[in-house]
Amino acid sequence: QTIYYELAPVKLVGIINGVDEIADLKNLNVLPVPATDFLQVALEFDNTKDVRIQLFNNLGQEVVNEVHNNVLNGVFDIEVANLQSGMYQLRILADGEIATRSVVVQK
After folding, report:
1. Is there a contact between 99 and 21 (Cβ–Cβ < 8 Å)?
2. Closest C-alpha among 91, 82, 2, 76 to residue 39
């Protein structure tokens, strides 16, 4: 016997702006919102860090993965022109710690 379940649609009632769990992170700015061609990520740390910048679509698929070494203060342009419109999750990894932001790409 096969049992089928019907899933009800989920209504999004809120979005977490971001989580900062990187101890040495002094500043994280992400502009513009919404982004069309490029997303600018500005980072400022107390000490230099090796940083991984990742962007995930709403299915959890990684669509951007960049590594930047010895970052103290940096501004990075992430190309999003080839991405579909929608909500994305930006993840910054440094020394095993994570900071996240929700971003919107709009065409």
Report:
1. yes
2. 76
Report the candidate in 101, 91, 87, 83 with the shortest Cα–Cα distance to residue 34: 87
- The whole-angstrom separation of Cα 83 and Cα 64 is 10
CA-wise closest residue to 29 among 83, 77, 84: 77
pLDDT digit string, tens, across residues 4-29: 666 655 444 334 455 668 888 999 99
For residue range 61-104, list pLDDT tens digits in order.
999 999 999 999 999 999 999 999 999 999 999 988 999 999 99
**Which of 98, 97, 48, 41 lies closest to 72 in space, CA to CA?**
48
Q: Letter for the amino acid at 93?
A: L
Query: What's the mean per-residue pLDDT of the chain?
Result: 87
Give the residue ranges of DSSP H helices in 22-105: none
